[in-house]
Amino acid sequence: MNDTDFKILFQKYLDDAITPEEMQQLQRRLESHYPAAVIDELWESILQAPYTGPRSSPDQLAALYRNLKPAGKVVTINWKKAIQYAAAMLLLVSAGTYLYYQTTQRPLHTPPTTAKQQPILPATGMVTLTLADGSRVAVDSLGNQTIRQQGALISKTGNELVYAGGNSSTNSMNTLSTPRGRQFQVKLPDGTRVWLNAASSLSYPTTFTGPQRKVTVAGEAYFEVAANPQQPFVVATAGSVVEVLGTSFNINAYEPESQISTTLLDGAVRVSGIRTGIRPVVLRPGQESRLTNTHSVVEHADLEKTLAWKKGYFNFEGATLHQVLNELQRWYDIEVVYEGNVKDIRFGGELSRSKRLDQIITALKDNEVHFRLEGNKLTVLP
């Protein structure tokens, strides 16, 4: 087998078009003819070249790619190329070899357990509804059933819980909770719709009474609030209060994150901190409130990044390593452990939430940080 044959087989491997016999040929060639540095050069040349064959998926085939590590400490990742990199890593590990990052020429060894590691897919826990009496309902198992609670009718339509009716003389509280790896929607009794991200919860009454419509959020949620100027809508988190009339906005209030972010798409909201001495702000569409020990406003928020979770993908543009891994923890139900001091690195790019964890981890690998995955425990190495 010459280099041209190798490249053809390797491209077929990347396109999931390789036969078992061709796979054996490719692995034998890797084991017996190529040192790691030469393999690295060959597959890099393949990935850089324009590809004119059949395209099985956008994630596997890309005509061009950017470097994994541009100048400075910002790592801008081309995820399409990175998934190909993951495929190459898996192939080379199975052949008993290892790769060099060309930026440093330092070896990155893959732990022996990697080849045996079971793929980790997004978590699939149960969405639960906690009723006023403390009983819990598995929302996924509701089917066509309807729950009647003090006059309110609760039903499930697809991935949305719908409230209708309700007795205005009662004020029973319900809590909808999503586990890691799941998202869900709810239509509240006033017509307001809420999308919950993974590992989040929303507490609300079965009917809105009094001068306000007040709900409480932990984690992240997107709201489309039904207009009612006579009864303002109020969202409380552990560290903030958001007052609205009728609008669309996103709140990110995960703990133990130090920042609560409120991003406004349309309408108007007033964001206040619960701590004394923090001034409230009124947001205009496109602005974002960032509440920590102080309160600041981003004039032109990155709406694509903010709503990426609702559209089914990760957006890591400008995210720190800790922020990236916190989001992966919530989606894949893994435990992240840090060994030693981890360098300050920021990432860029976006990736589908349907990907396996090993694909994303390989895409995140940079010459400054290494990972070790053992079961559901991800260890970050300096």
UniProtKB/TrEMBL annotation:
Pfam families tied to this protein: FecR (PF04773), FecR_C (PF16344)
Protein FecR C-terminal domain residues: 313-380
Recorded GO MF terms: sigma factor antagonist activity
Gene3D superfamilies linked to this entry: 2.60.120.1440, 3.55.50.30
InterPro entries hit by this protein: FecR (IPR006860), FecR_C (IPR032508), Ferrdict_sens_TM (IPR012373)
Domain FecR protein intervals: 175-270
Highest taxon above the source species: Bacteria
Name under which the protein is recorded: FecR family protein
Species of the source: Chitinophaga jiangningensis
